[in-house]
Design goal:
The complex is a heterodimer of chains A (310) and B (520). Chain A is built from 14 helices and two strands, in the order H-H-H-H-E-H-E-H-H-H-H-H-H-H-H-H. Chain A has helices at 3-32, 40-58, 61-85, 90-109, 134-138, 143-161, 163-173, 175-180, 185-211, 223-233, 238-260, 267-271, 273-287, 289-295, and strands at residues 123-124, 140-141. Chain A has a two-stranded antiparallel ribbon with strand order 1-2. Chain B is α/β, with parallel strands linked by helices and 520 residues long. Chain B folds into two domains: 2-244, P-loop containing nucleotide triphosphate hydrolases (Rossmann fold); 262-353 and 423-511, P-loop containing nucleotide triphosphate hydrolases (Rossmann fold), CATH 3.40.50.300. Helix content of chain B is 35%, strand content 23%. In chain B, helix 17 (441-456) links the parallel strand 19 (429-433) and strand 20 (460-465). In chain B, helix 4 (105-111) packs across helix 7 (150-162), helix 9 packs across helix 10 (236-244) and helix 13 (361-368) packs across helix 15 (381-394). Classes of the chains: A mainly alpha (310), B alpha/beta (520). At the A-B interface, helix 7, helix 8 and helix 14 of A face helix 3 and helix 4 of B. Chain A: Its main location: membrane. Chain A: The chain crosses the membrane at residues 6-30, 42-59, 65-88, 95-117, 137-159, 190-212, 224-257, 269-287. Chain A: One of its GO terms (cellular component) is plasma membrane. Chain A: It holds the Pfam family BPD_transp_2.
């Protein structure tokens, strides 16, 4: 492999990993409060289509981003209301949200199929982008790539260093106890779900504004699911999520690379790679029950009704 | 003590006036009035469902009363939330601890403090250590809660209240999870606090504790206040009478039995823990004999759960030749096959393990009773219903009939039903966990009778309980479990509460590492 190819792989891996990182950062906070939102894919698609339409209509990619985050949180509010207020099953509701988002995004996006927008200009970090290999691969990206890294630091800081992080962990660990010491469990969960929605919308917008600046039906192609798997893969730790997101990014583009190197493997087979990796990691993690129990938020997926005091 | 109380001030620390709380289908608190002086240790007594928990949760701001007034230090207050209660100086130690296992001790304490309180304390870890010394409450602030014993966790809860200079400490059944020695330590702390002027509200079922430590007692029955008394002037029997209404037979002192024929043995049972918060079993060894009740005392979480699930077959790991029933090795059989051989099991957790919450009582009967009711793969529902009806009658289970869902029954009634169902199979061996936990005095008596009857019919019963008084009442032979080790087995009349209490704390482990069975 020549140097150029390595640079290209790294560059593409970071780009591919970025939307995963956004979505997974939102979901990890959500899951830390004990809410499992399987609607990531649906929220991403809505973010992608609304983000694209807003950017296309206004001619401003920034407005697209804001629109995507708003629609993501709006979608998550539907989920939050059903799950937190009415105590609906989280898994079923999350799946419904994905199906709903997939259909609705295809419906409202039909008018903008085939249009393109300019997207974001790359931002070369002075000095660093001049470095050999890594300069081109890591420091010549669009602003959202850097934003994702900054968000990762921020989420990690909040989760591990602040009282808010402690509160979030407490709610996910034992909501009844949290309620008893005066933490507003449902409020914390609502906010976490909305943060998750906004981040999923942002991840979706990255797809339609930056990754491939256009809207195609179902364009996220299962990235929402990969992000969900990524959270488990990372055992709810932000550092691992960053690593995992870029690793999955590499896996996703491997089929292009291998083809370029002249390997005659069916591209369909190679396109499966990230999904196979997801399954393998999930199996490995759940095989170690000991570890899973210690790391997973204890009340993940369990509804909490403050009126029913244990 | 009562004299010093009078000298202090005539002003009450807390006064409750006509507190009423209606839940759907149940009046939990009906016009309750009571008051507390500074430094007073006040017992709140009553059977399960008498409304004690609702009342203290009202004081702590978890439950909003429908009507009534709360007067705190002479001012009427509206305690909207636990944080408001804490601001006033009210602290509460819950029955089921409200700690977060994956956080450290100091993080747990920090969560309870407002940012202002936190900044006024400054060095939280230092303050915790200082309080540990003052009150002799040993807690290491850097440890994770999941690695602490139950007694240590309670200390953390108390510490959590002390850190914010508490004026009223509410303890909901604090002693039910402690060894007798730990109880003594807790009482020392409470007395110290009381001397400093902190009022204490103490919920308990154990009457001798109330007479030992409390200055005053308020007794609730069915949501109503039925009386107040000075426990020092009463005996446990007279207080029990006030609690139950009509006289219940306390301390009936059942006759003890001696079995000859060994029907069940565990031989050198070793088993690693299945999950991080579990306990591994270490060389457990005991025999059960026909017509005898073997009691195992122990504080929760010392391996009882693991022991029961390996015996019942719920834990499907094989332990070679370690468990025999009727001389046959059953360690490779699954739970269903063990049941067919005459092993019945009443698990600790009633809803979810003992019974399926969303199924009717007749369906729940069928769960462990399939043999007589199923022919050629078809269920004879009429017979099932008849049987469930008979169980409901025989054990006076309060419910709307055999169609009631298991989850609609109160804990005590469901327990009576499950006990009846298991006893109805005429088991050779019955494994029974906490048979009367959360059951009122009347129902407990009925369950005791049923167990003794079963024993007298020749069954062997393994009774695992945290209630040491109950074990002494029922068991013919006794043992204790601590950290996965089983103590020697002795005849009940040849041991004392003090010895069993020490065994519960693990003193036998060093002195007798092989934990040989003492021949009875």
């Amino acid at each position: 492999m020549d140097i150029d190819l390595i640079t290209q792989i790294l560059f593409a891996a970071v780009k591919t990993g970025t939307p995963l990182l956004f979505v997974a950062l939102g979901e990890v906070i959500c899951e830390k409060t004990g809410v499992l939102n399987l609607g990531q894919e649906g929220m991403m698609l809505m973010g992608a289509v609304v983000g694209f339409m807003a950017a296309y209509g206004s001619g401003n990619a920034g407005i697209g981003i804001i629109g995507a985050m708003l629609i993501g949180s709006a979608m998550s509010l539907i989920f939050g209301f059903l799950v937190l207020h009415l105590g609906a099953n989280q898994v079923a509701t999350g799946l419904a949200l994905t199906i709903f988002g997939t259909g609705l995004s295809a419906f409202i996006g039909s008018s903008v199929v085939g249009h393109t927008i300019p997207g974001f200009q790359p931002m070369h970090i002075p000095g660093l982008s001049e470095l050999p290999i890594v300069g081109k691969a890591l420091f010549s990206h669009d602003p959202l790539v850097y934003l994702a890294v900054v968000m990762a630091f921020l989420v990690s800081y909040v989760a591990n260093r602040t009282r808010l992080g402690l509160t979030i962990k407490a709610v996910g660990e034992n909501p009844h106890a949290a309620n008893a010491i005066g933490i507003k469990v449902l409020r914390v969960r609502y906010l976490a779900v909305m943060f998750g929605g906004a981040m999923a919308g942002l991840g979706g917008a990255y797809m339609s504004l930056v990754y491939t600046p256009m809207w195609v039906e179902n364009m996220t192609a299962g990235r929402g699911w990969i992000a969900l798997a990524l959270v488990v893969f990372a055992s709810w730790r932000v550092g691992n999520i960053v690593l995992g997101a870029y690793l999955f990014g590499v896996a996703s583009i491997m089929h292009l690379v291998l083809q370029g190197m002249g390997w005659s493997i069916s591209p369909n087979l190679l396109a499966m790679l990230p999904y196979v990796a997801t399954i393998v990691v999930m199996v490995l993690i759940s095989a170690d029950q000991f570890k899973e129990k210690l790391l997973a938020p204890r009340s993940l997926g369990k509804p909490f009704d403050p009126r029913q005091m244990a | 003590m009562s004299e010093t109380l009078k000298k202090q001030s005539s002003k009450f620390r807390l006064e409750l006036l006509n507190i009423t709380k209606q839940y759907p289908g149940c009046l939990a608190n009906d016009q309750i009035c009571m008051n507390l002086m500074p430094g007073e240790i006040h017992a709140l007594l009553g059977e399960n469902g008498a409304g004690k928990s609702t009342l203290v949760k009202t004081i702590y701001g978890v439950v909003a009363p429908d009507s009534g007034q709360i007067i705190w230090d002479g001012h009427e207050v509206d305690i909207k939330s636990p944080s408001k209660a804490r601001d006033l100086g009210i602290g509460m130690v819950f029955q089921h601890f409200s700690l977060f296992e994956t956080l450290t001790v100091s993080q747990n304490i920090e969560l309870c403090l407002s940012p202002e309180q936190l900044s006024s304390i400054g060095d939280l870890a230092g303050r915790i250590q200082e309080l540990s010394k003052t009150y002799d409450l040993q807690v290491d602030p850097t440890r994770y809660v999941h690695s602490l014993s139950i007694g240590e966790r309670q200390r953390v809860e108390i510490m959590r209240c002390l850190v914010q200079s508490v004026k009223l400490l509410i303890l909901d059944e604090p002693t039910s999870v402690l060894t007798p020695q730990e109880v003594a330590g807790l009482f020392d702390v409470l007395r110290k606090l009381s001397k400093e002027g902190c009022s204490i509200m103490f919920i308990s079922h154990k009457l001798h504790e109330v007479t030992e430590i409390c200055h005053k007692a308020t007794i609730l029955r069915g949501g109503k206040l039925v009386g107040t008394c000075s426990p020092a002037e009463e005996t446990p029997a007279t207080i029990a009478k006030m609690m139950v209404g009509d006289l219940a037979e306390q301390d009936a002192g059942y006759t003890k039995a001696t079995g000859e024929h060994i029907i069940f043995s565990a031989i050198g049972l070793n088993l690693p823990a299945k999950h991080p918060f579990g306990t591994s079993l270490k060389d457990i060894q005991f025999d059960m004999r026909k017509g005898e009740i073997l009691g195992i005392a122990g504080v929760a979480g010392n391996g009882q759960e693991e022991l029961m699930s390996i015996i019942s077959g719920e834990d499907n790991r094989t332990v070679n030749n370690a468990i025999t029933l009727d001389g046959k090795d059953i360690s490779t059989l699954n739970a269903g096959k063990r049941r067919k051989m005459g092993l019945a099991y009443v698990p600790e957790e009633r809803l979810g393990r003992g019974a399926v919450p969303d199924m009717s009582l007749s369906e729940n009967t069928l769960l462990t009773h399939s043999s007589g009711f199923v022919s050629k793969g078809l269920v004879n529902w009429n017979a099932v219903k008849q049987y469930a009806k008979a169980l409901i009658n025989d054990y006076s289970v309060k419910c709307h009939g055999e169609f009631s869902e298991a989850k609609s029954l109160s804990g005590g009634n469901l327990q009576k039903f499950i006990m009846g169902r298991e006893i109805g199979q005429n088991p050779k061996v019955l494994i029974c966990a906490h048979p009367t936990w959360g059951v009122d005095v009347g129902a407990a008596l009925a369950i005791h009778q049923a167990l003794l009857e079963l024993r007298d019919q020749g069954a062997a019963i393994l009774l695992i309980s945290e209630d040491i008084d109950e074990l002494f009442l029922l068991a013919d032979r006794m043992s204790a479990i601590c950290n996965g080790h089983l103590s020697p087995v002795v005849r009940t009349e040849e041991t004392t509460i003090d010895q069993i209490g020490q065994w519960m704390a693990g003193t036998f482990i060093e002195s007798n590492p092989s934990s040989q069975e003492v021949n009875a």
